[in-house]
Specification:
427 residues; alpha+beta; eight-stranded mixed beta sheet; three-stranded antiparallel beta sheet
Length: 427
C-alpha cells in the first residue's frame, strides 16, 4: 500500500511515477476524502475534549446542588454528534483504504516505463545449446524416458496437471534438495508454511483485492470466516509471518526460504508451445524471502538475484538475467529482475525466478515494522522475494539442453547424488 502522506505532499510526483505502469491515475477524490477525514478528526477531537471537560464538572456541580439537566442534555447531543462523526470518519477511511489498496507499487526511479518490450537484458550466461541431430521437445523427452505421465495427470486432475514417475520424481526431488542445500549454506532459515491461507495473507502480499479470481478459493463452511485459498507461492505465506509485529533492527535482515507446491488458476488460454510443464495449475517451488531495513534492501535484492542465478549456473543451464519494465513487474513490486532459462524447442527464454523488491508496500499492508536503534522510532521494513527456484521450467530446460542424439538425457552433476545415475535412458 502506498503512503497517503506521500500522495498528499507530492501528488504529481507519485502520479508521474505510477503512469510508468498505469494508463491513468487521478487522486482528486482520494485527496478530497483525506481532507474531509482530517477535518472531521480535528472537529471531533475538539468535541471530545469539551465533553470530557464538562463531564468532569458535572459531579462537582451536582454536589453543590446545581441543576445539571441542561448540561446532561447538551452532552447527550454532543455525544450523538461525535458518534455520527466517528461513523463518517470510518466510512471515509474505508474509501481511502480501498483506493490505496487498489493502487500498484510505485516503480523505482531506475525502472523504465512500459511493458515487456522495454525489458532490458543485463547479462547472458553460458553457451547456447546446438544440436547435430533433430532435437526433441521436453514433452516428448519426458514421455519417452518415462519421467512424466501427462495423460494420467490430466485424468486425475484435469488439464494443466501431470504426474512425476520413477526417475522423473527423483529428478524433481533432487532439484528441491539442491536448492535447499544451497540456501542452508547461505544461512537462510528453512520454513514449511501452511498451504491454505486466509484473506489477510493475500491482502498483505498485494494480491487482493484485485487478483482474488487468480487463486483457488477454499470453502471453509464456517460462518463469519474470511475467504481461504491455496497459496499461489510461498511468498504469500512468508510475508505474513511477521504480520502486525515490530522487529528489532539488530535482528534484520531476516532471511527465510520455504518449499511448497504452488497452486494457480493461470486463467486464459495456453499457447501451443507452453504445453507440458511450462504452465500448469500446480508446480513445486523453493522461495527465498527477506525482511530488511530501507537502507539495505537494494543490496538484498542484488544478493537474491545472484543466489537465484548461481543455482541455474550450478545446473549448467544457458540463461539470462533481465531487468523488467514497470508494467511487467507484478503489482506489489517496485523493481524486478527475472532469471530466464533457454528452452530450445521454444527458441525462447522462460522465467524461472523473479527477484523483486517490494520496498515498504507489503509492510504497510501487513503493518510490519522495526524499531530503529538510533532514534527508537518504529518504521516499516522492506520486503523482498525471489524464487530459488521453480522446477516446472527448470526440468524442461534440463531435458532439452542436456539431451543426446540417442534420446537419452545427461543428469547435471550437482543432482547425481540424489538421482543415483549420470544419464537417463529409455526404460
Amino acid at each position: 500500500m502506498l503512503d497517503i502522506n506521500r500522495i498528499r505532499n507530492n501528488p504529481e510526483e507519485v502520479k508521474k511515477a505510477l503512469l510508468k505502469r498505469m494508463d491513468d491515475v487521478d487522486f482528486t477524490e482520494l485527496l478530497e476524502w483525506d481532507m474531509q477525514r482530517r477535518q472531521l478528526i480535528a472537529l471531533n477531537d475538539e468535541k471530545k475534549s469539551k465533553r470530557n471537560k464538562v463531564s468532569a464538572e458535572i459531579p462537582r456541580l451536582k454536589k453543590e446542588g446545581n441543576d445539571v439537566s441542561e448540561l446532561l442534555s447538551e452532552m447527550k447531543i454532543l455525544s450523538d454528534n461525535i458518534k455520527e462523526n466517528d461513523e463518517a470518519i470510518r466510512e471515509l477511511e474505508e474509501k481511502i483504504n480501498f483506493f490505496l489498496s487498489s493502487l500498484p507499487n510505485i516503480p523505482a526511479d531506475d525502472v523504465v516505463a512500459g511493458g515487456k518490450e522495454n525489458n532490458k537484458v543485463i547479462r547472458i550466461w553460458g553457451d547456447k545449446p546446438t544440436f547435430s541431430f533433430e532435437a526433441k521437445n521436453h514433452v516428448d523427452l519426458a514421455t519417452d524416458l518415462g519421467l512424466i505421465d501427462y495423460e494420467r495427470g490430466a485424468k486425475i486432475g484435469g488439464s494443466g496437471y501431470w504426474v512425476y514417475t520413477g526417475l522423473g520424481a527423483l529428478i524433481e526431488w533432487a532439484l528441491l534438495n539442491y536448492f535447499i542445500e544451497e540456501h542452508l549454506k547461505d544461512g537462510y532459515t528453512f520454513m514449511l508454511p501452511p498451504h491454505i491461507l486466509n484473506y489477510k495473507c493475500g491482502y498483505t502480499a498485494g494480491q487482493f483485492p484485485k487478483f482474488t479470481d487468480d487463486v483457488f478459493k477454499i470453502d471453509t463452511s464456517e460462518p463469519g470466516e474470511s475467504m481461504h485459498f491455496l497459496l499461489p507461492t510461498a511468498e504469500t505465506a512468508l510475508i505474513n509471518y511477521h504480520q502486525n509485529e515490530i522487529l528489532k533492527e539488530e535482528e534484520l535482515p531476516r532471511k527465510y526460504f520455504a518449499y511448497t507446491p504452488c497452486y494457480r488458476k493461470e486463467a486464459g488460454s495456453y499457447r501451443t508451445e507452453e504445453r507440458g510443464m511450462i504452465r500448469g495449475h500446480q508446480f513445486n517451488k523453493v522461495e527465498m524471502f527477506q525482511y530488511t531495513t530501507p537502507e539495505t534492501s537494494e543490496q538484498a535484492l542484488e544478493e537474491l538475484v545472484i543466489k537465484a542465478e548461481k543455482l541455474v549456473q550450478g545446473l549448467g543451464l544457458y540463461h539470462r538475467v533481465s531487468k523488467l519494465a514497470a508494467r511487467d513487474c507484478s503489482a506489489s513490486m517496485g523493481k524486478t529482475f527475472d532469471i530466464e532459462v533457454w528452452i530450445p524447442s521454444m527458441n525462447d527464454f522462460k522465467e524461472v525466478s523473479s527477484a523483486s523488491n517490494a520496498y515498504d508496500y507489503q509492510a504497510r499492508r501487513g503493518n510490519i515494522r522495526y524499531k530503529r536503534l538510533s532514534t527508537g522510532k518504529t518504521e516499516f521494513v522492506h520486503t523482498l522475494n525471489a524464487s530459488g527456484l521453480a522446477t516446472s521450467r527448470i526440468l524442461p530446460a534440463i531435458l532439452e539442453q542436456y539431451q543426446k542424439d540417442d534420446g537419452s538425457v545427461v543428469v547435471p552433476e550437482v543432482l547425481r547424488k540424489w538421482v543415483g545415475t549420470d544419464i537417463i535412458r529409455k526404460p
